[in-house]
Specification:
Blueprint lengths: L10 H10 L4 H11 L4 H8 L3 H15 L4 H15 L4
């Protein structure tokens, strides 16, 4: 599905994942940055929002997706990707 570079998923895969997980565009941006290894402060800088706003988004994302930390979030993404983005 296109070049990955150093990223976990291609843009097309991210779009499918966001749809499968019912993420808003902002939630999808935050999840992408978290999965790329960014901490809350660098996510805040990248999106032009405060670190507290990032913490709020992350807390709400965890509740929405039923995960408790970034490791579980990554596992959920990989599991969902297997179903939403099967290999060609």
């Amino acid at each position: 599905m296109g070049q990955r570079g150093n990223k976990m998923f291609t843009q097309a895969e991210w779009a499918k994942l966001a749809d499968a997980l019912a993420l808003s565009p902002r939630q999808a941006e935050i999840v992408q940055l978290l999965c790329d290894g960014h901490k809350n402060y660098s996510v805040a800088q990248a999106l032009g929002i405060s670190p507290e706003t990032v913490r709020t988004h992350v807390r709400r994302l965890y509740g929405k997706l039923g995960v408790t930390d970034r490791t579980e979030l990554l596992c959920l993404l990989v599991h969902t990707a297997r179903n939403a983005c099967p290999p060609d």
